[in-house]
Design brief:
Elements (H helix, E strand, L loop, with lengths): L16 H29 L4 H28 L3 H16 L8 H15 L2 H16 L3 H26 L4 H17 L15 H7 L6 H15 L2 H13 L4 H26 L4 H22 L5 H9 L2 H19 L5 H30 L7 H17 L9
Helix pairs in contact: 1-5, 1-6, 1-7, 1-10, 2-3, 2-4, 2-15, 3-4, 3-5, 3-7, 6-11, 8-15, 9-14, 9-15, 9-16, 10-15, 11-13, 11-14, 12-13, 12-14, 12-16
InterPro entries: HcaT-like (IPR026032), MFS_assoc_dom (IPR024989), MFS_trans_sf (IPR036259)
Keywords: Cell inner membrane, Cell membrane, Membrane, Transmembrane, Transmembrane helix, Transport
Membrane topology: Multi-pass membrane protein
């Protein structure tokens, strides 16, 4: 089916389009780069135990797999997606102020649930605006998106140094200020009108195109990707708390998180030179093996006296266990899913990733409560299940790739 034609207004490139989108990406990822590594530390500082932390982290994950496609579909139907993006960023900033209220379990959980509804769509909506510029005007997506990765890294590092001085109480302040900066950038968002192609997470496109994707290869593969990804839930939820418990300072915690992201970016840069000739199934199996090695190594680093340097080495595996999964998924979709179904394929993969990550995050609280760092060992069978599903997918792999 051909795409609808562009209106005369949509044929005119907004002034300074790339600069405005770069600013949006740069401000978008500061809050995310603060929330992932440091929000669990703030929760612990407020007196929540591991099981409560797991619920506060996991409940929003369950919710957002439902609400995010609904909101991206709303944005697709709006007269201009930029207006929806501005409204969501403003709502996120206002909602995040709820963390300044007395930090009872009910209040923090309620704020987290409300915040995830309006916060999670930021990234796919910014991607949608940027990709419209790529399609219409030939803009360079990576040149714009790289500022998001840079700001995420800076948030990891600078956030750690701020917390070293102020303690975890600064986390809600940083998130609030970062969302305020994102709102200023959002007000400068280029007006692009409705998209000619639905957002990758659009509920509308998933409903229309998903039935044709329900084949054994696609389902086994995306399920396997979701489960291997979910084996990282213990890391994301509790590794900062663990590092702090053994005396590692906030600034070093920030550097450890940042190093993982640096290694991830390095894999993106050099993947084609190293793994271009390897099948997508083998790419994913390597990623699964990297995950297993990582979960075996984490509990051993400190008892073996390898110190902080040992954790930096283990964090280097982020390039394998995370980056190769992301690349492998996109490689599979590019090889086997036709262009008109790509958005639905992305949406289904997002659902599986989000659901399994939420489920394992919920289980990670009791694991950390009872086992401490040895809870990483429970992530090994999860990664193995994901690899088994990838192997099952290989038995149903199509003989020919999609061309063009």
């Amino acid at each position: 089916m051909s795409l609808p034609p562009l209106s005369p207004e949509q044929l005119v490139k907004p002034s300074h389009f790339e600069l405005r989108m770069s600013l949006i990406f740069a401000t978008l990822f500061v809050s995310q780069g603060t929330h992932l590594p440091y929000f669990p530390l703030w929760l612990q500082a407020k007196g929540f135990h591991a099981e409560q932390i797991a619920v506060i982290l996991a409940a929003p994950m369950f919710l957002r797999v439902v609400t995010t496609p609904m909101l991206t579909a709303l944005a697709d139907r709006a007269s201009d997606r930029a207006n929806v993006y501005i409204a969501l960023v403003a709502a996120s900033m206002i909602t995040s102020a709820g963390y300044f209220l007395p930090a009872t379990y009910a209040v923090v959980l309620a704020v987290s649930l409300l915040l995830t509804i309006v916060w999670t769509p930021h990234s796919p909506m910014a991607d949608s605006l940027a990709l419209s510029g790529v399609r219409r005007f030939g803009s360079n997506y990576t040149a714009m998106r790289k500022w998001g990765s840079i700001s995420y890294l800076c948030a990891n590092v600078v956030g750690g140094f701020i917390l070293a001085v102020t303690g975890p109480r600064a986390v809600p302040v940083i998130i609030f200020i970062a969302l305020g900066a994102a709102l200023v950038a959002a007000l400068l968002a280029p007006r692009m009108g409705r998209p000619r192609k639905a957002s990758p997470l659009s509920a509308t496109e998933i409903q229309q195109k998903a039935p044709s994707l329900f084949n054994a290869y696609f389902l086994y593969f995306t399920l396997g990707v979701g489960i291997i990804t979910a084996s990282h839930a213990f890391l994301y939820g509790f590794v900062s708390i663990y590092w702090k418990s053994i005396g590692i300072g906030d600034s070093v915690v920030g550097l450890l998180w940042a190093w993982g992201v640096v290694c991830e970016v390095g894999m993106f840069l050099f993947f084609n030179r190293i793994f271009a000739s390897i099948s997508v199934v083998r790419v994913m199996m390597i990623a699964g093996i990297g995950s297993i090695i990582r979960w075996i190594a984490f509990p051993l680093v400190w008892p073996l006296g390898l110190g902080v340097a040992g954790f930096f080495v283990v964090q280097s595996l982020h390039a394998v266990s995370v980056a190769m999964v992301l690349i492998g998924l996109q490689k599979m979709i590019g090889e086997t899913v036709s262009e008109e179904r790509t958005g639905a394929a992305q949406g289904i993969a997002y659902f599986f990733n989000g659901f399994f990550m939420a489920a394992v995050t919920l289980a990670s609280g009791p694991l950390y409560e009872r086992l401490g760092v040895d809870g990483f060992l429970a992530m090994i069978p999860i990664a193995v299940i994901g690899m088994v599903l990838i192997r099952l997918a290989s038995r149903s792999a199509p003989e020919h790739s999609v061309r063009g």
